[in-house]
């Protein structure tokens, strides 16, 4: 139950609705029992008396109990469902607030399909917590105890039989099936997660699978996962039906015992025969309410597993977040002794890197593929925490700075930039929500996309845009933001050289006096850089101006010679 503590806490935020739902559920349950008990009493009384007044009063009571039962059941449904929907709202908000600080690093630990299955499926599963896990035992317990207390005035023996029956149907049988469910349910959600992963990869990779004639293989894998998940669902259904059958059988046996014990007490003169039918009918009515407890084990285990899977994500360690703001004006970036490795990997992606990026300078970070350039960019952005070393921005340790406020001071273009379904206008206004159409058009013109209308549709992930158009649209966003720190990771790798050089000239013109950090595999045009940092195997092997590096005739010089020989 410890796994469901957080969910219970969120549920009890709406304690008023929960309390009202429990109250109406109790009234509905007691009214149903009273209706059946009154019916039994009326049958017995009608057989033993001819007084019409008593019979009319009892008939009126039957109508009253029926009306109260129906009205209370409506109120119980209304308030319990309202509390459930409110709880789900609180759960989603709470989960997102705890998940947001972990992004984007969380994507390195969980596959997107698995995350989607948890964020959507597991959260939706918890809607059953109040209605099927927390609520039924509470209401049933109150109804049963009230019924047993009432029955004890007529026969302690019958009250004892009903109490034992309550323990069996409300506690013992659900507990046994909960244990069985826990032993067999370990793979159910894993199968659903596996199915979500395979379905996501199938949809995202459909084109490549088709091109390489591997579509049938992936389809077979998806079909196998779906069949395994369906088989698991079928077994769960059979288990739930078995629980319901056993619970109903036990409830029926208890009613027979009540009848037998009551008949014995009547024969022994310890119980007035007038009340026997009433007590039997009360027993039948009370145990009719145990049906939800048959499904309790399945819903309890489902809710527990869902809570565990959600907690696995949001209980990842998070470094304390700073609150300080960066000052306005020129800013520098200083990285000292920085080392970093990705989770689960032994080798360092960045190994003991120290670099000082001064205000108003242009720095290019170059090196072969896999040398750690993009990882270094992620560290400068404070996307990943350093394993060792220190990062200072504007002289402030990164741990003391508010992360989002720091990003607000940066113009960032990454290798992969996300584009939302909408229009060119809506995707540009992410950078500046107050920008006018004229400003948006000017930004597009600076990256040579002036022919794009602002109303042009952008499909999901920018599927209708080429790689170069996506990069230029991302650069247009950075131009609109116009801050003093520019961090650009391969910003024009998909653009032809002439257009790329023109865009660089526009960036340097608009950002005159700003700090530029540019990651590039292209060694052309680096003469304009104030500093060139050369990386290999996660380390800086040399740095300096273009002229200094060429004069040294070391690593950078060799790279340049190779490039010249290839394109000569």
TrEMBL record:
Gene3D superfamilies: ABC transporter type 1, transmembrane domain, P-loop containing nucleotide triphosphate hydrolases. Keywords: ATP-binding, Membrane, Nucleotide-binding, Transmembrane, Transmembrane helix. It is found in: Cell membrane. The keyword Transmembrane applies. Its main location: membrane. It is a multi-pass membrane protein. SUPFAM superfamilies: ABC transporter transmembrane region, P-loop containing nucleoside triphosphate hydrolases. The chain crosses the membrane at residues 20-43, 55-72, 129-150, 156-179, 249-268, 274-300. Residues 333-562 form the ABC transporter domain. PANTHER family: ATP-BINDING CASSETTE SUB-FAMILY B MEMBER 10, MITOCHONDRIAL, ATP-DEPENDENT PERMEASE MDL1, MITOCHONDRIAL. This is Thiol reductant ABC exporter subunit CydC. It comes from Planococcus antarcticus DSM 14505. The lineage of its organism: Bacteria, Bacillati, Bacillota, Bacilli, Bacillales.
């Amino acid at each position: 139950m410890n796994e469901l503590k957080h969910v219970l806490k969120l549920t009890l935020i709406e304690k008023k609705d929960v309390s009202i739902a429990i109250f109406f559920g109790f009234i509905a349950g007691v009214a149903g029992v009273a209706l059946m008990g009154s019916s039994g009493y009326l049958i017995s009384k009608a057989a033993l008396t001819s007084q019409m007044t008593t019979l009319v009063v009892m008939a009126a009571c039957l109508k009253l109990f029926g009306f109260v039962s129906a009205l209370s059941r409506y109120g119980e449904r209304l308030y319990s469902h309202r509390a459930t929907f409110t709880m789900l709202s609180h759960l989603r908000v709470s989960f997102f607030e705890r998940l947001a600080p972990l992004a984007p690093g969380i994507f390195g630990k969980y596959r997107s399909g698995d995350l989607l299955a948890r964020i959507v499926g597991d959260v939706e599963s918890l809607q059953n917590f109040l209605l099927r896990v927390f609520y039924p035992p509470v209401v049933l317990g109150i109804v049963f105890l009230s019924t047993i207390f009432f029955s004890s005035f007529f026969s302690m023996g019958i009250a004892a039989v009903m109490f034992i029956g309550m323990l069996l149907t409300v506690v013992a049988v659900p507990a046994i099936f909960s244990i069985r469910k826990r032993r067999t349910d370990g793979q159910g959600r894993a199968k659903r997660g596996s199915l979500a992963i395979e379905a996501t990869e199938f949809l995202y990779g459909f084109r490549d699978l088709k091109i390489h004639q591997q579509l049938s293989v992936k389809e077979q894998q998806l079909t196998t996962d779906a069949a395994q998940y369906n088989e698991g669902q079928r077994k769960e259904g059979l288990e739930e039906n078995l629980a319901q059958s056993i619970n109903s059988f036990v409830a029926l046996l208890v009613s027979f015992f009540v009848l037998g014990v009551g008949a014995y007490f009547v024969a022994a003169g310890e119980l007035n025969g007038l009340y026997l039918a009433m007590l039997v009918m009360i027993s039948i009515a009370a145990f009719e309410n145990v049906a939800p407890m048959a499904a309790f084990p399945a819903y309890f285990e489902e809710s527990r597993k869902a809570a565990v899977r959600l907690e696995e994500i949001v209980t990842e360690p998070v470094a304390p977040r700073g609150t300080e703001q960066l000052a306005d004006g020129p800013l520098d970036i200083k990285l000292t002794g920085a080392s970093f490795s990705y989770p689960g990997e032994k080798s360092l992606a960045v190994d003991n890197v120290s670099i000082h990026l001064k205000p108003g300078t242009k720095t290019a970070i170059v090196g072969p593929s896999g040398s750690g350039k993009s990882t270094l960019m992620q560290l400068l952005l404070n996307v990943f925490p350093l394993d060792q070393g220190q990062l200072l921005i504007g002289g402030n340790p990164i741990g003391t700075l508010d992360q989002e406020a720091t990003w607000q001071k940066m113009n960032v273009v990454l290798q992969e930039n996300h584009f939302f379904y909408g229009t060119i206008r809506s995707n540009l206004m992410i950078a500046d929500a107050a920008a006018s159409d004229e400003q948006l058009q000017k930004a597009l013109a600076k990256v040579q996309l002036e022919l794009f209308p602002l109303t042009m549709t952008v499909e999901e992930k920018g599927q209708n845009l080429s790689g170069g158009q996506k990069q230029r649209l991302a650069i247009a966003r950075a131009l609109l933001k116009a801050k003093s720190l520019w961090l650009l990771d391969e910003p024009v790798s998909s653009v032809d050289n002439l257009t790329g050089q023109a865009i660089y000239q526009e960036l340097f013109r608009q950002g005159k006096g700003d700090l530029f950090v540019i990651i590039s595999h292209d060694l052309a045009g680096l003469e304009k850089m104030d500093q060139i940092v050369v990386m290999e195997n996660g380390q800086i092997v040399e740095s300096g101006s273009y002229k200094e590096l060429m004069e040294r005739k070391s690593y950078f010089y060799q790279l340049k010679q190779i490039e010249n020989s290839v394109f000569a």
